[in-house]
Write the structure tokens for this entry.
Amino acid sequence: MDRAKPIKPVKYGLEIRRKPQSQRGAAAARPLPPVRGDPKLQSLFGDDDDDEGIEADIARQNIKKRSQRETEQQHEAAMAEDPSVFDYDGVYDDIHAARTSKAKEAVQRQARYIPNLLKTTKEREKEKEIVQERLLAKERAKEEEEFAGKERFVTRAYREKLAERQRWLAEEKRKEAEEAANDV
């Protein structure tokens, strides 16, 4: 029981592991790598070094001028190759116009089957109406004995509706006959 370990105090929050002293000292004692080239050109502050000579300033200005000339030459070459190379607004307008035209086409396009469905629906409504009229005619025939001596009134709109129905039935019969002839 003499070998009891000392109790470490409990730490709360972020615990950062630190290297032991022996490793820290070895890293700090390493020499920095040697600087290659002119130590004045590789100074820590670049242009802020007052000890540099006039020749270094002139050399730096010459490098700037040379890079500017190269940039201008590249710019001129690009303009000679394609005059609209820097026309960003024109390209953006073209892209935007293409997008809007695609959107308009999508809106203008209609569904393929909707007109056929509407046509079929109208035909079914007419067929239902004919069936309903036949049922009413049968009921009237049964009740005719009751109203035998009375006058019948038929409006002009109802006569037109009956004529329209007769034309539609004749057209349907013609289509059926045509289909039957073509089925052979």
Summary: The mean pLDDT is 81. The first helix runs from residue 21 to 29. The two ends are 113 Å apart (CA to CA).
